[in-house]
Design goal:
Chain lengths: 385, 376, 315
């Protein structure tokens, strides 16, 4: 096990970068998993509404209460600049100013300009909150038109607005895994980074011609050398896999080991095998560490951006997705979305099999490519000799 | 003499592989990814788009059909409606062709795959419809005479809620990724800056020894190094900016010359910071470069380069840091240029950058002022 | 008397508790090839770094060209060339650009500089490699580039700090010949090394250093005449009896005699015809004589006698 031991020793020098990537990932992954909505019951998307109530009347309070039923409300009197920053960086922010005389003018039917708002122009949230306010005011106006006093009209309007449409969520699988989606969807980026940046330089160092020649002139057989190297790489991958895929979800998130979770594990396993094949190919093609950093960054960031790791699949352009279909991370994300019931993906066993198989096929293709590269190299060295 | 120094320092920098990669190639690659994946998200995720729905009428409701038809017309239409039977509608939902199925039975109900903004909008519309309908019916029952006024109240266009126009800029919040990208190139100038110190300090490299025994003063050599660093940095940020504005054609919301001005000042700040840090401590070349890149990336992370929400978190939790974080300064300067109608905030950001540059340059010169070393 | 180029007076440099240079005094004259000889860690490089005002030191005075040396003594620095042990060049600049850059720190005039750079390239034989980047150069070529960068501005005083460490014998000879050539052209040379053969080969005068102190200085001959042992004679002779040995010991000038596995070694403090006298003594006893050799003292002998240890460990 001499080769294996040396492999681990060299690997130790790459632990810094591996731990950095893992730590950042765990931070982002856990943060986003804790912030993802729990599926199952339909929940409305809520805006963060900041109200500046200058009227402080019964009517204004009723409006605030009404909006508060489906949105997060807070009070404040922000400046234009603060509002601008707020809506720019947070498109679900909605600033509402209830002007003085709101109640009186509503009763008089002179509703023009009794409210003012700031929100991302033409955004979903602007139209969502806007339509709620409009409905509330219209309903109140209707009651006033029907002869009610302003106060009566408002309370009747509030009552009428209690009416809710029944919403059913149709999806075979949704419960349980949805929360973990935010965690699992980042796996491709982190696995690609950690494995490429930590393992490629080690394999490169181990298979440097001079070192290889020295080792092969010792009593160890090439087969054993290869085997112990592979064992070294695999044990590192196994540890990362165990930690990130199994231990953290089970112990940190306390998730149940459902059938969904097992499929997610399998999905990750397929992607890990793909990473192994990629690591092998890169370390056989590339001979300098800076180049590994370049290639590793391009592959990990590129795949992550166009395959739905950083940006949900549903927002990606059709043409981008067409390209992404030729990358394994895309299929990984499809299955994760299907398990969570997001991005318009529907889970089915056949889909799961397809996604996992495709990833394995990519891995096999890369393994074959690596073998070809190795053969070509060997032919070249023997030829030279 | 100064020119001679600048010339060769510049040559040495632009031929440095790590600079070519991290400051020229990497930003272009990252900008491409941002462009492909993020810039379009604004139109799809934040701006309201027509929603595809199917209506399955189990009972006839001509009024509802009329309303749906009217909402499915025109340029800014709300819905793309398909009236169909349940089986087809379910298939469409499965294929992702529609966001929801509206059932009329006779009560309105909605079936969706998952929750989301589109689904919330559909639901909110159905709520509106049901409320309106029930209020009209309720009033008609109570006082048949009022029906006209009530109906009129609902059909009147409401102008109660004015919109405050806060900015003429590009409100695409994802453009901050591009601002942050330009900031990243500026701050990665620390790698160029540390190199200046390394080349001229005898205790940092053998090159430094050779430079120290020459009759050219340290002040001139460091000054030349800084100027060459700024030249290299200016070129690097220009590559990124030109690529974003003219190749990707992303609308930063800022006139190009102002992008240039900001990026150049930001770059110099990066070089100055690197120059100072290069004079502190003794590290191997690889470690120094690694530290400079890691330090830059942390600043960029805190400014929202990797996770956009980070910016909001920092602005709320640690505004003082956001106001001095060099990466955030560049990003925010570009942002204020975009959204503000005036230069008030921009000038503050630029002055802060100038101050940071000055402080670190001075500190660097003070650190390199020592002429002899206790050990080499 | 030639002019004094370098004068170091009672230099002391401490690293915390370690005294790296201990009251070191040296005087180097114009036209000399002055050797600083000593084992690794004896303080040679520290002395050079103090001389160049790179290192701060605790005590002492340093004068170069009769003026006080300081980090800003640019008028002194412009006439000094330094070739360090480690190659100090820009990896990103070509051979020509490197030499031109460093030369440019000394010579402002462009035409003059161009000539100087070309001379340096010719001198070091790098004509075929001017457009190469350093990493494309072999070890020997890299050393030559290192030298070219140090001497292109035609300095009056050139300091070579172990320029031949880890250099193949061929390149080493080239370098040594080059140094002699530079000296012939009028430069004063300071040469530090722990290879005594090199120092014997090129230096006109030297100082031997150990533990931060100069333990001897002078011309090579002076040093050798100062040692007790001026000649060592070795004779292969079998079966010497006690009496013969005591007769040998009693010979004039002989101060140390040893006899081991058929080899008789006799050390002499001086005198002439020592070999003849010894052989005569042995012949008189009818002793069969094999190979005979007589060795003059080397610097190693000098060092051994001064410090009780060999100059360098067996490499």
């Amino acid at each position: 096990m001499q080769v294996y031991k040396v492999f681990m020793k060299i690997l130790r020098s790459k632990m810094g970068i591996a731990i950095t990537y893992l730590a950042i990932f765990l931070f982002i992954g856990i943060y986003s998993a804790n912030n993802s909505p729990n599926q199952g019951n339909f929940s409305e998307n809520s805006a963060g509404i900041v109200v500046n109530d200058l009227d402080k009347s019964g009517a204004s309070k009723a409006l605030i209460d009404y909006l508060g039923k489906t949105n997060k409300m807070s009070e404040g009197a922000p400046s234009d600049r603060e509002m601008l920053d707020g809506i720019y960086y947070n498109p679900s922010r909605y600033y509402l100013t209830i002007k003085e005389g709101f109640e009186q003018r509503l009763a008089d039917g002179e509703t023009d300009g009794i409210l003012a708002h700031a929100a991302q122009d033409g955004s979903y949230y602007e139209s969502l909150v806007g339509s709620k306010i409009d409905l509330y005011l219209t309903t109140a106006k209707a009651y006033i038109a029907a002869g009610n006093s302003a106060e009566d009209a408002l309370s009747k309007a509030a009552e009428a607005l209690e009416k809710k449409t029944e919403v059913n969520i149709i999806s075979e699988k949704a419960e349980g895994f949805a929360q973990m989606e935010g965690y699992f969807k980042f796996i491709p980026y982190i696995f690609l980074s950690v494995f490429v940046f930590a393992l490629c330089p080690v394999i490169m160092a181990m298979t440097k011609t001079d070192i290889k020649n020295r080792i092969f002139s010792s009593s160890i057989s090439p087969k054993r050398f290869l085997l112990e190297n592979a064992l070294g790489a695999l044990s590192f991958m196994a540890v990362v896999y165990l930690l990130v895929i199994i231990l953290i979800p089970v112990f940190a998130f306390k998730t149940d080991i459902t059938a969904d979770m097992k499929i997610a594990w399998l999905n990750c396993l397929a992607f890990t095998v793909f990473c192994a094949s990629l690591v092998l190919l890169i370390s056989n093609l590339v001979s300098s560490e800076p180049l590994i950093s370049l290639i590793g960054n391009i592959i990990s960031l590129g795949m992550s951006f166009i395959c739905g790791v950083f940006v949900p699949l549903q927002y990606l352009d059709g043409s981008v997705k067409t390209i992404a279909a030729f990358l394994p991370a895309y299929w990984y994300e499809i299955l994760v979305s299907a398990l969570a019931g997001t991005n318009g993906q529907v889970y089915s066993t056949s889909l799961a099999v397809k996604c996992i198989l495709i990833q394995f096929l990519f891995a096999i293709a890369l393994f074959a490519a690596t073998l070809a590269v190795m053969k070509a190299r060997e032919a070249k060295t023997t030829h030279n000799a | 003499m100064l020119f001679h120094n600048i010339k060769y320092n510049t040559l040495a920098s632009v031929r440095e592989k790590s600079i070519i990669f991290w400051l020229m190639l990497f930003p272009v690659i990252l900008a491409t990814f941002f462009h492909i994946a993020l810039i379009g998200v604004y139109d799809k995720d934040i701006l309201f788009n027509t929603i595809d729905v199917a209506v399955v009428e189990k009972t006839e409701n001509p009024n509802f059909k009329k309303v749906m038809d009217s909402l499915s017309e025109g340029e800014d239409k709300m819905f793309n409606t398909t009236f169909t039977d349940e089986e087809k509608a379910l298939k469409m939902l499965d294929d992702g062709d529609i966001k929801g199925i509206i059932y009329v039975d006779p009560k309105l109900s909605l079936s969706v795959k998952a929750d989301g903004l589109d689904q919330t909008i559909i639901k909110s519309f159905l709520d509106n419809y049901s409320v309106t309908e029930s209020v009209i019916i309720e009033n008609a029952l109570n006082d048949p005479g009022s029906i006209e006024q009530v109906a009129a109240a609902f059909s009147q266009e409401l102008k109660a809620n004015e919109q405050l126009k806060l900015s003429d800029g590009n409100m695409n919040t994802y453009m901050t990724y591009m601002y942050n990208l330009i900031a990243m190139v500026c701050i990665l100038g620390t790698t160029v800056g540390t190199d200046i110190a390394r080349r001229n300090e005898a205790n940092l490299s053998t090159l430094g020894i050779r430079n120290c025994v020459s009759p050219t003063g340290k002040l001139i050599k460091n000054f030349a190094g800084l100027i060459s660093g700024c030249i290299v940095q200016t070129v690097c940020t220009m590559i990124a900016a030109v690529y974003i504005v003219f190749v990707l054609r992303d609308d930063l919301g800022i006139p190009f010359p102002m992008v240039v001005l900001t990026a150049v000042v930001g770059s110099w700040m990066g070089v100055a910071i690197g120059f100072f840090f290069g004079t502190v401590g003794k590290f191997s070349d690889g470690a120094r470069e690694g530290l400079a890149i890691a330090f830059s990336m942390i600043l960029c992370f805190l400014s929202g380069l990797m996770v956009g929400d980070m910016k909001t978190i920092m602005m709320e939790k640690a505004p003082w840091f956001n106001n001095i974080n060099p990466a955030a300064l560049v990003c925010d300067a570009l942002y204020t240029l975009n959204v503000d109608g005036n230069y008030d905030r921009y000038i503050v950001k630029m002055l802060t950058m100038a101050a940071v540059t000055l402080v670190f340059t001075l500190l660097g010169f003070i650190m390199t002022r020592r002429k002899k070393y206790a050990s080499i | 008397m030639a002019q004094t180029v370098v004068k170091i007076d009672k230099l002391v440099k401490r690293y915390k508790d370690l005294v790296a240079v201990d009251h070191l005094s040296l005087e180097i004259f114009e036209g000399e090839v002055f050797g600083l000889l000593g084992p690794n860690g004896s303080g040679k490089t520290t002395t050079i770094n103090c001389l160049l005002s790179l290192l701060s030191f605790d005590k002492g005075d340093i004068q170069i060209f009769g003026k006080n040396m300081s980090p800003t003594a640019y008028d002194i620095k412009k006439d000094i060339g330094v070739v360090m042990q480690n190659v100090a060049v820009f990896d990103q600049l070509t051979v020509y650009e490197n030499i031109d850059y460093f030369c440019g720190l000394y010579i402002k005039d462009k035409a003059q500089r161009k000539k100087a750079v070309e001379d340096a390239i010719a001198f070091t034989g790098l004509e075929d490699f001017v457009k190469f980047l350093p990493k494309k150069l072999s070890g020997g070529l890299l050393r030559r580039l290192n030298i070219a960068c140090g001497i292109a501005h035609k300095p009056k005083l050139i300091i070579f700090d172990e320029p031949t460490v880890a250099v193949d014998p061929q390149s080493r000879n080239k370098i040594l010949e080059g140094i002699i050539e530079l000296n012939k052209q009028g430069a004063t040379i300071i040469y530090t090394s722990h290879y005594m053969e090199e120092v014997e080969q090129i230096c006109t005068r030297l100082a031997v250093m150990d533990k931060g102190r100069v333990i001897a200085q002078g011309t090579i001959d002076e040093l050798k005449t100062n040692v007790k042992c001026s000649e060592t004679v070795t004779v292969e002779a079998r079966e010497l009896d006690e009496q013969t040995l005591s007769e040998v010991k009693a010979l004039e000038h002989a101060f140390e005699t040893s006899y081991e596995s058929g080899r008789l070694t006799v050390k002499y403090t001086g005198g002439k015809h020592n070999v003849v006298r010894l052989l005569n003594t042995l012949q008189n006893k009818n002793i069969h004589i094999g190979r005979v050799s007589s060795e003059q003292p080397t610097l190693n002998t000098v060092f051994l006698e001064l410090t009780g240890k060999e100059l360098r460990d067996k490499e």
